[in-house]
Inverse folding.
C-alpha cells in the first residue's frame, strides 16, 4: 500500500497546514495596533479557565483520557490565543497522538515531575494537540521540521506567540523522550530568556518568519517563483482550494475520511467573515461551515 496520501487528501492536509499557519490572519490584520497596545502596555491578567485542565469535552478518547493530567492542557482553538494575549505568555503545543509509542511515556513523565509541570503551567498556556482530531498538523510539523533539517517525529513540541506564529519547535526522537527533562530544560531556558529580554521582538520576528513561510508554501503550490503573494491572497487561495473539496450533497470533504478538522471549519468561518473575501468564495465557505 502506498505511503503517500491520495491527491484530494494531500490537498486537504495542505489547506489545513496553511489554515494553521494563518490562524491569526484576520486578528493581526484588522486589530494589530490595538492588540499591540494591550499586549505591551497593560499588565497581564490571569484567565481563570486557563488555570485548569480543560480536555474533558475534547473530541477524541486520547484527549479525554488526559483530562485529569496535572498540566493545564487547553483545547486547540482561537480562544487559546486570546487567553495567551491576556496573560502575555507564549503557547506551548505538544502535537502527538495515542498511537505513538513515546506519547504515554512522555505524558507519564510529565505527570510524575512536579518541577516540569509547574514550569509549564507557570510560563505557558499549554495545548495537547491530537493528530486524530487535527490531521493537518502532520504536514504542518513536517514543514517546520524541514526548516531545521530534522525528520518529522512525534511527539512534536511547538512554542507559539499569541498571534499563533511559531517561535521555536522540536520533533522528539526516542532518545529525546528518554531524556526529556534535559531536552525541555534547554529549550525552555532559551524561550524564557528571549521572552523576558524582548517579547516585542519575539512576537514581531515570529510574525515576519511566518508570513514568509506562508509565501514559500504558496509558491510551491503554484510553482510560481516570480510573484510574492500577500497574506490575504494566501488565505483566499487556501480557502478556494478547501471549498473545492467540499461536496454540499453529502456535506463532506473529499479525502477527509468523514473527519473534518475543527481548525478547517474555523478557518472557513473566519475567512467567510472577512470583508475582503469575494462573495462567491464567501458563499461556498459559509455552506461548508454550516454543513458541519
Amino acid at each position: 500500500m502506498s505511503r503517500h496520501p491520495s491527491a484530494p487528501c494531500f490537498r486537504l492536509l495542505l489547506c489545513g497546514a496553511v489554515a494553521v499557519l494563518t490562524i491569526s490572519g484576520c486578528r493581526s490584520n484588522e486589530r494589530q495596533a490595538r492588540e499591540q497596545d494591550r499586549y505591551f502596555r497593560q499588565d497581564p491578567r490571569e484567565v481563570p479557565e486557563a488555570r485548569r485542565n480543560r480536555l474533558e469535552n475534547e473530541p477524541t478518547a486520547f484527549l479525554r483520557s488526559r483530562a485529569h493530567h496535572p498540566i493545564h492542557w487547553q483545547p486547540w482553538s482561537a480562544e487559546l490565543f486570546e487567553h495567551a494575549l491576556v496573560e502575555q505568555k507564549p503557547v506551548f503545543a505538544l502535537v502527538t497522538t495515542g498511537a505513538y509509542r513515546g506519547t504515554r511515556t512522555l505524558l507519564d513523565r510529565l505527570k510524575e515531575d512536579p518541577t516540569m509541570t509547574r514550569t509549564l503551567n507557570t510560563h505557558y498556556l499549554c495545548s495537547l494537540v491530537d493528530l486524530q482530531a487535527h490531521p493537518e498538523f502532520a504536514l504542518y510539523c513536517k514543514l517546520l521540521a524541514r526548516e531545521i533539517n530534522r525528520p518529522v517525529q512525534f511527539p512534536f513540541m511547538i512554542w507559539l506567540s499569541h498571534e499563533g506564529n511559531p517561535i521555536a519547535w522540536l520533533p522528539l526522537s526516542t532518545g529525546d523522550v528518554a531524556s526529556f527533562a534535559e531536552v525541555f530544560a534547554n529549550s525552555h531556558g532559551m524561550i524564557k530568556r528571549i521572552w523576558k529580554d524582548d517579547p516585542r521582538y519575539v512576537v514581531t520576528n515570529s510574525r515576519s518568519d511566518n508570513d514568509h513561510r506562508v509565501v514559500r508554501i504558496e509558491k510551491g503550490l503554484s510553482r510560481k517563483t516570480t510573484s510574492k503573494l500577500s497574506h490575504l491572497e494566501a488565505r483566499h487561495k487556501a480557502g478556494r482550494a478547501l471549498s473545492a473539496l467540499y461536496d454540499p450533497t453529502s456535506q463532506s470533504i473529499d479525502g477527509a475520511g468523514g473527519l473534518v478538522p475543527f481548525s478547517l471549519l474555523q478557518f472557513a468561518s473566519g475567512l467567510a467573515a472577512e470583508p475582503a473575501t469575494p462573495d462567491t468564495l464567501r458563499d461556498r465557505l459559509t455552506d461548508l461551515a454550516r454543513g458541519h
In short: The chain is about 55% helix and 10% strand.
